[in-house]
Amino acid sequence: MLKKTVPLTDLEIASQAVMRPIGEIAEKAGIPLGAIEPYGRYKAKIDVSELGEHQATGKVVLVTATSPTPAGEGKSTVTVGLADALQRLGEKSMIALREPSLGPVMGVKGGAAGGGYAQVLPMEEINLHFNGDLHAITSANNALAAMIDNHLHQGNELQIDPRRIVWKRVLDLNDRALRHITIGLGGPSNGVPREDGFDITVASEIMAILCLSTSLADLKEKLAEIVIGYTFDKQPVTVRDLGVQGALTLLLKEAFKPNLVQTIEGTPALIHGGPFANIAHGCNSLIATNTARTLADIVITEAGFGSDLGAEKFMDIKARIGQFQPDAVVIVTTVRALKMHGGMMKSDLKTENRDAVESGIANLEKHIETIRAFGIEPVVAVNRFITDTAAELSVVLDWCRANDIQAALTDVWEHGGAGGLALAEEVLKSLEKPNQFAPIYDVEQPVVEKINAIVRKVYGGEGVMLTDQALKDLKEIERNGWDILPVCMAKTQYSFSDNPKQLGSPRGFFITVREIKPKLGAGFLVCLTGAIMTMPGLPKQPAALQMDVDEQGCAKGLM
Which terminal CB of the chain, N or C, has fewer other CB atoms within 10 Å? Predict the structure, then answer.
């Protein structure tokens, strides 16, 4: 641990940490040196084929959270601190996290490598480009887009209808100006004019495929199944029809290898893949999780946003495809977030308000109910902020005790693993108990029934309403036999409903699905709800405005 004298920023703490050579971290994790490919001194790729045959027996602890607010929850920070705490208790633990996207790093939330004394390192490099995985996914996605437009230009042998091309280009930044564009202008030599658009890279189906593939052969097969558009007679056209799955796999072969880094306390961490949870499935790669399960006794992983998004998709999509189950679930919450769910403004959060905390507990209660719907009894982590009062913290902890809910106060931002020991002990107790895990719907159910199961059991709503476009999409999906796929809901992260302003625990609402997009390669149907966008925009004051670099090349303002 570092000696703490005055309050430091996350970046200052990370820059003062003494990192171990990545070979030492690999040795600690049980990874032979022949299996690691160093990217500098403190990062490496893992060649999983060099690990030999090992059964994935490590227990999986999923970390989720209450509905996010501008006050912050610290889910990644608690994830890192919990793994460090388990190491302190003598457990062989490992972390499996997603990679940060430059969109939110430069936009709203800043970095995504934990915080304080519970961080993964090197924090600056992880948040900025890392080992190039997201750039490889961007290149593969856009290579496919270029192949499609070249096919149109070179005679269109497959008879692809330019009006029915569904494959978009991507960029790993928030850029609302690229949502709807026109390409191919300027005469015949510049291609076939048509409407197009950009998604953010982490919403690309190729990102989802990379995160749900188990081998290079599996990756290639999934890429081949991508539907890129439809012919003039409305028949689906796939990557296999274009014959470019091999080229796309070639572009992704290095990105497919999990990345090894370390926490401040030297706990091994695999950071790999980064799909958003509000518009994609929100979990790190299956190959990283399973690799960690072969190397460690306990794997701590997280899923994006609250239990209504990342955790639901972890249970219904990732665990189903990966044929494993979470052995324990941690729900992270904060007094600050509960006060906002209880009606307080962000500007007033430093003022003690027990009543607002009590009102906001309804949000925590619904997330607990959601995890229980999957047959798992969760552990609540109350992530302490410096402005929390003892009276406010006791409201949450007393409520948990009164309702027989395992809970622990955590202070990992300030104290690292030492601040997570109470939580680690509760998690170990939870791991000793059997659970009754099961997805909340059967894939054989009709699509509307699957959506309704999510809306009623996970969100607490009444049901779903489909727009005319969604009904048209559903008819096409059923005609092609794609209705047996799991459902991936694209929904605001701020509310259980599709209205981001409905905080707390709203009831009696209906979710409106405006489009249903089949993702055959990834193996699920994306249901776009409300006003959710697949290419976010920057806020009025982007985090990038605070960022800089000094003459020595050291980052500034990266949170």
Answer: N
